[in-house]
């Protein structure tokens, strides 16, 4: 999972920082900007606090479950994370070009007569949304945190936020040459691969539980479809990186292959249909 944490934090932090930047620039043009900024940072604090509480809740629930309960909880979270990633990428694909105008129009509607609580509400909801997605996406990592790996995890979190801030700054300098839509589309594709990686882990976890409890499972579903270990072993550095981000398996079972193909067929239908009716 190393590197996956940093990427997810980086990608999601960019959205959150972009939103804060848009709202900050809008407030600075307002005659009552000093008062408005207090509500902006208040919304940021509420959103971050909500995300942290969710992470603690997931960690707490996981630790009171039995071994089987923990396995089921992990599987459910992996499925939920997969669905959320696809939903988020689809939303960004639909709104990345008009996000700034939508945010500004929403702010104007909610701050009539200087009702700055509207700013707090928008920012808190947006930050909590991004934060909760991060928590769900990384739930498997969060649930496995201990004294041995906690330092690495928080280092990647801090690194992801720092790189996101730097990326945002660089894009403000070159956004005339590289539109945000291209950036979000490119990282969106990587996220869709990350989603299928989580889906495969969930599906493989399901079949392992069924086999463990002696449920009848067609034999061919858990037979290896091929073996590319000699070419690229998924336990090595590069193989593990491809495993985490793109769902690579050097010895995939047939159920994983079927799931992978079915997933991309569904993704193709969803996004091609959206483009057809756009």
Features:
10 helices, 78% helix, mainly alpha, single chain, 278 residues
- What percentage of amino acids are in beta strands? under 5%
Helical run tally? 10
Q: How many domains would you count in the coordinates?
A: 1
Termini separation comes to: 36 Å
DSSP helix fraction: over 70%
Shape: globular
Largest sheet: number of strands, sense, barrel closure: none
User: What is the multimeric organization of the chains shown?
Assistant: single chain
Description:
Keywords: Membrane, Transmembrane, Transmembrane helix. It comes from Photobacterium kishitanii. The chain has 278 residues and is mainly α. The chain has one domain (4-277). The protein is 78% helix and 0% strand. It contains 10 helices and no strands. Helix 1 (4-28) runs antiparallel to helix 2, helix 1 (4-28) runs antiparallel to helix 5 and helix 2 (33-64) packs parallel to helix 5. The longest helix is centred in the C-terminal third of the chain and has 33 residues, at 180-212. The radius of gyration is 21 Å and the shape is globular. The two termini are 36 Å apart.
């Amino acid at each position: 999972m190393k590197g996956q944490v940093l990427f997810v934090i980086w990608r999601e932090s960019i959205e959150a920082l972009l939103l804060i930047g848009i709202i900050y620039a809008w407030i600075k043009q307002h005659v009552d900007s000093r008062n408005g900024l207090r509500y902006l940072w208040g919304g940021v604090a509420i959103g971050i606090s909500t995300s942290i509480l969710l992470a603690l809740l997931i960690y707490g629930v996981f630790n009171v479950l039995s071994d089987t309960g923990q396995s089921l909880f992990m599987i459910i979270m992996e499925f939920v994370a997969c669905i959320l990633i696809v939903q988020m990428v689809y939303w960004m694909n639909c709104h990345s070009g008009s996000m700034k105008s939508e945010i500004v129009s929403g702010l104007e509607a909610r701050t009539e007569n200087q009702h700055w609580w509207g700013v707090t509400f928008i920012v808190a909801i947006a930050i909590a949304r991004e934060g909760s997605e991060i928590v769900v996406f990384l739930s498997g990592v969060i649930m496995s945190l201990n004294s041995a790996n906690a330092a690495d995890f928080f280092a990647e979190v801090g690194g992801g936020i720092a790189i996101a801030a730097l990326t945002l700054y660089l894009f403000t300098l070159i956004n005339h040459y590289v539109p945000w839509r291209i950036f979000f589309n490119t990282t969106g594709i990587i996220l869709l691969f990350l989603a299928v990686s989580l889906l495969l882990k969930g599906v493989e976890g399901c079949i392992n539980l069924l086999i463990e409890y002696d449920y009848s499972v067609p034999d061919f579903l858990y037979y290896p479809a091929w073996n590319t270990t000699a070419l690229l072993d998924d336990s090595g550095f590069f193989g593990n990186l491809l495993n985490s981000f793109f769902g690579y398996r050097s010895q995939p079972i047939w159920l994983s292959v079927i799931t992978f193909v079915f997933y991309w067929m569904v993704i193709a239908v969803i996004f091609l249909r959206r483009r057809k009716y756009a």
